[in-house]
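Researcher: Go.
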Amino acid sequence: MRKKIVAGNWKMNCDLGEMQELLTGIKNQLKNIPDTVSLMVAPAYTNLYAAFETLKETPVEVVAQNMHQEKNGAFTGEISAAMLKGIGVQTVILGHSERRSIFNENNQLLKEKVQTALDNNMQVIFCIGEELESREENKQFNVVKQQLEEALFTLPEKAWQNIILAYEPVWAIGTGKTASPEQAQEMHAFIREQIAEKYNSEIADAVSILYGGSVKPANAKEIFSQTDVDGGLVGGAALKADSFVEIALAFQN
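Model: Structure:
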């Protein structure tokens, strides 16, 4: 059975005090969350270790929002896989739409980052998804297929044990728009089909695919009820403990 995951991507939000307040709010409600749901939070680099220390006696995993592809060197401002692992971080988000659009990260660069993470025995939450123009031109499947092929489809089968996918319809991030549950299911099923064609159905069926596009308490239950949706990569709604926990509770019957 695939893991059910709710991951909060905090982006460039929360100073140390705000983070501690948020984490306290989440910790106080953990008893309500089913054991079948895995929670993750992704604070800014400056707060990763403090978050790890705060959550180390809980099942909540602290993950990084990004990392550099090189082992070390003269890369001012960047963070390596070894640095992340050194403070207890075992999972990293790669390929987020904002990294692609604002920082010009392309599929080739992301392929290198994924390989570096895997070489360091890290788990990867890999983001894929189309922008509004591609959706309006009915090219969303071509875009997602290309992202998979160029960044991930050279990986050996065993590497997929450490891959989580997150489908982000870019037009639904921070816009208040949300893909309909049917649109989310359609794309998630397509992604699974592509993996099955490239590898096999066993790998395709085992990969958790999260939906990441303005997930909030009001829509989480309907989105998560779709056959191929295994959870959410949550943005703004993850910045409030009550709404983040309520999203996680959407998996309850």
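Model: DSSP finds eleven helices and eight strands in the chain.
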